Amino acid sequence: MGADLKNVIVFALGGVRHAAELRWVREVVTLGFVTEIPTAPPGLTGAFNLRGNLIPVLDTGVLVGGRPGPAPRQGDGALLVEFDGVAAALRVDKVDEVATLQQTADGRAVIDSRGRTVPLVDPSAVVRRAIADSLAVRGEGDGDAASELTADSLRPTRDPTTGAKAPPGFDGDTTLG
Asked: At the fourth CATH level, which superfamily is domain 5-154?
């Protein structure tokens, strides 16, 4: 039996190509002015305003076990990802392609259009790690910090598509149906 096909976005980060499943990626964005957060853990490099929502910017390099990347700047590219109603921007150097690619037998990578192995990054794990690190810096949590964070406390207050104030109970989903 062959390996599964995955709908992915392939991006470069620190000279290394990675892929992420499209199910986690809401859109590719250009960062606005990024405000540094002085007491933030190493993986949280700042925040920016996207259509009225304050979006945390994560240092993707640190969170995937690599070296810290350069400080994010206005105009940098990022993947806007969402996990359990929590949105975050993962700064990337560039987006290479969006494609349906074959997953390797071990499930840790995909094979790109040129036959090269590209490691898969799980944005949900990246966001969970950033949340856990943030709570640990604040002295909260017991090692499973991500499970203690309620999604309701981080839901958007504005519709990310229109920028309009969100009604009570809005979960950030702008799809119909």
From this structure: CheA-289, Domain 4 (2.40.50.180)
